[in-house]
Amino acid sequence: MHLTYLEAIRQGIWEEMERDPTVFCIGEDIGIYGGAFKVTDGFIDRFGPERVIDTPIAESAIVGAAFGAALTGMRPVAEFQFMDFIGCAFNQITNMVAKAHYRWGAPAPLVVRGPSGGNVHGGPFHSQNPEMYFVHTPGLKVVCPATAYDAKGLIKSAIRDNNPVIFFEHKYLYRRIKDDVPADDYIVPLGEARVARAGHAGSVLAAAGGILSAQGQRRNPGNAKALGLLAANSEPRASGHATLVLSPYSRV
Amino acid sequence: MAKKHKPKAKHSGSNHRPHSAPKGRAASTTRTYSILDYRLEKPSFHLRQVRDGDTVRYEVTGTLDGAVPPIRDSKYLSKQQCIEIYRWMLLNRKMEAALENLYKQGKVVGGVYFGLGQEACSCASAYALVAPISTLGDLIPVLAGVALGARLQGKNIAVMTYIGDGGQSTGVTYEGLNFAAVQNLGLVLFVENNLWGYSTPADMQFRVEDLAERAIAYGIPGVIADGTDACQIYDAAHEACERARRGEGPTLIEAKMMRMKGHAIHDAAEYVPKPLFEYWKKRDPIARFDNYLVNVKKWLTRAEHEKLVAEVDAQLEADREFAVASPMPKPETAAGGTCCEPGCHDIKPKYGVPKVRTEKVSSARRAQAALHLK
Lengths: 252, 374
Description:
heterodimer; A: alpha/beta; four-stranded mixed beta sheet; 12 strands; B: six-stranded parallel beta sheet; 13% strand
């Protein structure tokens, strides 16, 4: 099927909810409204309000409650309406969720997902790329898919992972890119790099929206955790050069 | 022909109003609410900062000369249960005394935080519960989530967590309790008002007279209990847990007492006005319960009491020996374990496999484009 990046994510979450009764969604306006970006459109009709929970505007409570449910063996998918609001739950994510396995031996199999990135006339609170705060936090996995194919495979991997995963969906890509996405159950493993185009002079690693502005030799890592993705088989070691391109920030 | 019944849509939230709110008369312009208060004395005193020459210190005003009230008989506890709770309280107190000694001998790595004067609250409330407990404000929404997870797995459980007069000032407290309330989750929140958040008195943390009044704002029942009376604490906790297990949602219980040591071992708490110490020392929970069991109810003879104390001492001594004789953990063990690796944990639902809706919709609703992306 030829799906947009957004449809691929929707399909990935839907398939996981059908496959595993412990998966549920929690967030603001995700139920009858179907989500601000319509990622969960149709979910409440299919899965019921018990598994598609609309919350008050309380990001600490969204993540905290998702963490608590994860401790009972559920696999919550917590949506942030915009990842710019992730600061509202920063303490829950970095001090509670990220430390759970280290401190208590308690895995926290939850996914925190939402739209990030700019170039959409969203202003300062609807355009941010906050992923690096979480790349720096041990205990978390951070994912920034760059293609529709990756988006579906990675969200499925993220949901199945026993670790907390922060999943940044680039909103600029939501409906602007399409890919052939298999109808069957497939995953893209977290933490591996994929060569988008091979070259010789050096390596450019890009994630999410950065893909569109990367030049020369391109790599498509799919997820930022693998900045340890300068892994055994990667050519930067051979060529000696690597340039990291994320969604561009300009400093004035 | 029989009429087909449309199954009632299940609310995920609740439309419960505080059960104490009366239906207003049309002419009335004022609403009144009531808060259950189990205490047998209701002192009122306040702390404020005053300048005293070159220094600024705390001054306490109010009635501090009332007689110590009796223990209120529990509606639910048997003689055996009371004695058991007393044993736990004694163990609690003596363990902390042992820890203090060990700390002063340089044998403890890290800090020591005491609960002196609060043993009735911690022991009697925990005794009412069989399921998860925690003590951090940040864990209020988490415990709400535990109750949510259990409910998704088909079980109404009671979860209990504690927060202090200081900790309840955080935003996450509000968010977590509000979420539990609107979702009707079985969260029993014990607010341990021990009058001090580190060096900050309760009068500088909030303006309401009693924190239990905050329950009104969440739409849940609020209860005040004497934190130095084990029976009151148990009763309040028991009723709240039963309510939770019946699926009637959260309860906010405020336990009133005072922290009889500093915030931690390094804090001498010199900022606490002496009259306040004197007042609460007379209300020591262990002394009160001791008197109740031996002199009032005559459930323990002097000899039985001495035997009980000796048993607790012996148990503690054995534990202390074990701890002191145990080797320190190897430094290498501090590394690793940040991630759950493959094969590390096999996660299964704790209370049961969730029952899920299996019928598929005949056609998925056509997705509308989000306004943001137009």
